[in-house]
Structures are given as C-alpha cells and as structure tokens.
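Lab meeting, item 3. Inverse folding demo.
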C-alpha cells in the first residue's frame, strides 16, 4: 500500500468534497421518487381530473402497494392529498414541484437533442438526468441552447 503524500488539509478537503458530492447524489435520489410521482399525478389530473392509485401503479410499472407507499410519503411531505373512493390530488406545493420537474425535463431533452441524441433516447435519458442536474448546470444548458455564452 502506498502512503498518500498530500498534506493532511488537502486530504481532508478532498474527503469533504467527496462527502458533499455523495450527499447531493443521495438527496437527489430520494427526491427523484417524489418528483416522478408528482409529475405523473399532474399528468393524470390533466387527462382524467384525478389520479387513482391503480392508474399511478400501471403508468409507473409498479405494484399497487408500492404506489400506495409512495403516495403516503407524498401526503406526509405535504405534496398530495387523497379522498376516499376518489383519487390522489396534488397540493399547491406538489403542483409546483410537478411544474418544476416538467420544465427541467423539457430543458434536458432539448439539450440532448441539440447535441444529436435521438428523440427516444433523449426522452429516456432525461428521465434520470433531470433529477440529478444542478441549477447552475440547468442555467448553462439554457444559455447554450439560447446561443449565449454560459460564462
């Protein structure tokens, strides 16, 4: 095993940087589920006036209990409400999240297409990227697409 010859402060700085990066990724992964559900619920509400658990589960390709568990989390987070014998509805905060996610998705798709990614691949890839990209990166994407220098 080789000894790391960097100064202790540099090693500590690198570890802190790694910790920040991994913390950000874990946080994004945790919010990705909420974002996907709010986006889908907004779509179902626009299409059908409400989002039923059965429809949510079918569209996301998950089981009914999995969808129930996720909706329960949305409700705990104040992003959704449900009514007996009806469906799931977004709160104002949930609706705002859904709109933000849709905007990020459209921007990422636009960028991917601009660099030559085929339409179907751009849509699929944007589903993952949209949850992990920072606001600074999104602004750079937008500036690039608008023909401005991101610097």
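The presenter then showed the designed sequence:
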């Amino acid at each position: 095993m080789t000894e790391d010859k960097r100064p202790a402060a540099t090693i500590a700085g690198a570890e802190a940087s790694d910790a920040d990066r991994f913390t950000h990724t874990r946080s994004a992964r945790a919010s990705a589920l909420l974002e996907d559900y709010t986006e889908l619920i907004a779509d179902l509400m626009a299409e059908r006036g409400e989002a039923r658990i059965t429809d949510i589960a079918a569209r996301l390709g998950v089981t009914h209990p999995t969808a129930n568990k996720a909706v329960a989390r949305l409700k705990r987070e104040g992003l959704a409400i449900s009514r007996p014998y009806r469906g799931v509805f977004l709160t104002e905060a949930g609706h705002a999240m859904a709109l933000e996610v849709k905007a990020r998705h459209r921007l990422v798709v636009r960028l991917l297409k601009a660099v030559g990614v085929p339409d179907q691949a751009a849509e699929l890839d944007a589903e993952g990227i949209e949850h992990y990209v920072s606001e600074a990166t999104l602004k750079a994407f937008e500036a690039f697409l608008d023909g401005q220098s991101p610097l």
